[in-house]
Amino acid sequence: MVPVAAILGYCLAAIFVFALYTIIYQYTYWKRRKMLHLESVPIIGNNYPILFGIDSFPMHAQKMYKKFSGARYYGCFDFRKPVVIIKDPNLIKTICVKNFDDFTDHLTFVTEEMDPIAGRNIFSLKGKRWKDLRSTLTPSYTAARMKLLFELIDECARNFSQYFLENPEFAKSFEAKEVFTRYTNDVIATAAFGVKVDSMKDQENEFFMHGKASTTFTSKLLILKMVLLRNFPRLMRLFGATFLPRSSDKFFKKLINEAVTLRREKGITRPDTIQLLMQAMDKEDGVYVTMDDILGNAFIFFLAGFDTSSSLMAFIALELAANPDIQEKLQQEVDLQLEKNDGKLTYEALSDMKYLDMVVSETLRKYPPAPITNRVCTRDHVFSPPMQGYPEYRMEKDTVIMIPIYALHRDPQYFPEPEKFDPERFNEENKSKIEAYTYMPFGHGPRQCIGNRFALMETKILMVHALRKFTIKLTEKTVFPVEFIKLSFNLGAVGKFWLQFEERKKVN
């Protein structure tokens, strides 16, 4: 029988050896490669400003980007994982497009090992499985498919606008992110799941409540859970931890299973992701698709649409309220296009709203949906030196790359007066002058966001219906300029998005 004290001693010794190894590994990893790098804190790497609430996620990324002026890239640590920060637009092109086959994968928060359902989505999958799924899903995001979904989304936007007309007191002061999330919830419910809900009238409908529980990324406990899932997946799996709350996981599985069963039994077809995956399940063409794939990708479609699209809408509304001249110009375009179409919004009329495109593009520059994107090196690749005085760098397979989108979008070298909201950056003359690979709100190359066309369409439809009826104004509770929430993975605003919809006197 081994004494308890001896077992405890062995455990402490093992912990000490592990800690010592980690410290030595981190302090020597980049030095052994003669690589330009930041010194890091053992175990937590260069993430301490985020973990201890010193900086918000985008501000930390921007500070990291500004390190080593003139460098094209450099090394650092994400907890115990070595990471290369890319600053040079030409290298971004190399990684995302030119030599894409060397950098095909994403580093993901959720893998199949962590969560068998949520980990089977197009963002998380790697290699051939990702490529097969991408080719299967791409047809659901073509312009033709978007046109088929237009009427469903337009109905949600009309219901949304009508609620404010019927509730003028509510319109005097509301939290925009919250109400826009209700709209995106309804859009996804009808466009992806075939479920009709009105979340403005039915404030606590089950679809919305589970969506909200699944996409709240500002909770300290959730951030800790995400960090642990990412760095200690086997241990967290041992404790039964999953990405989704258990109740929401159960709800979405039931909802999607019922939708698939109903479509098969009734012969119902819809122009959406679920339908394409169902068709792929029935084919014998070498692309293996299971029910878990349908569940995982329906969920990621919901996750992306529910939270990131509503954030984009909230930032657009806030900037329009803070810049009434821009808002007035946009309203004039909306009025003109609707007048040409007898007051009816059509897919073609929406496509003709060029100033709306400019406003949305500038909002995406200033507030990109993902402050950072990443790639994983899938085979060794040699980079020229990061800056003068350093040798070339052979990036080894499995090395993680971070591309700081938010920081690129706020770099005055590429976007003069980056804090200024200026849609004219994206007019026909100026947008051609933007340096390639410095503007990438949805990423670049084959791994760019597959659903960006859908997100842009639902955003533009909503803004047209809001601006045709209302003028958006700031309130006493509005916090502007925006200050970002700390301990959050996305661009959340301190003080939220308090705004007012003032009904226009002359409306279409």
From TrEMBL:
Keywords: Endoplasmic reticulum, Heme, Iron, Membrane, Metal-binding, Microsome, Monooxygenase, Oxidoreductase, Transmembrane, Transmembrane helix. GO terms for molecular function: heme binding; iron ion binding; monooxygenase activity; oxidoreductase activity, acting on paired donors, with incorporation or reduction of molecular oxygen. CDD domains: CYP6-like. It is a peripheral membrane protein. The keyword 4Fe-4S does not apply. The chain crosses the membrane at residues 6-25. Its cofactor is heme. GO terms for cellular component: endoplasmic reticulum membrane. Heme binds at residue 449. It is found in: Endoplasmic reticulum membrane; Microsome membrane. InterPro entries: Cyt_P450, Cyt_P450_CS, Cyt_P450_E_grp-I, Cyt_P450_sf, Insect_CytP450_Detox. Belongs to the cytochrome P450 family. This is Cytochrome P450. It comes from Trichomalopsis sarcophagae.
